[in-house]
Write the structure tokens for this entry.
Amino acid sequence: MNERINAAGAILRRADVDLRSRRLPEQWSPVEYGCHLRDMLLVQRERVLAALRVDRPDCTPMGRDKRAVHDGYADQDPADVARQLADAATMFGNVLSRMSAGDWNRTVIYHFPETAERSLRWLAVHTLHEAQHHLDDIRRQL
């Protein structure tokens, strides 16, 4: 995952491209995608921590579109987002690295793509998939 996060961070530190403008109204800008990726990693970390404390916690949807407005994704400094993204990935990785063999089978109630009981193993793989997907979203905006 670190190579994906490092690649996204490198893009967000570029001064030679417009990172704030949306290429299409329905697509986020690179900095908005970076903010979403950062927040997704932090939310996933909290979901893992909850599953390690209680049985089958409910993963409340993160409200991605409302979060983008409420947190002012478009107005955030891309270099700050790059640093925060690296921190979020480190924090998520730290939690995963401390899990025991049995912890990977603990479950959460996850609401995407449909509501289902999911293992922490699935959550980790899904998070990696989402990180790659959002890195691709950022690259497409350049």
Remarks:
- The helical segments are 2-12, 30-53, 64-70, 78-97, 120-140.
- The radius of gyration is 15 Å.
- The domain at 1-141 is CATH 1.20.120.450 (Four Helix Bundle (Hemerythrin (Met), subunit A)).
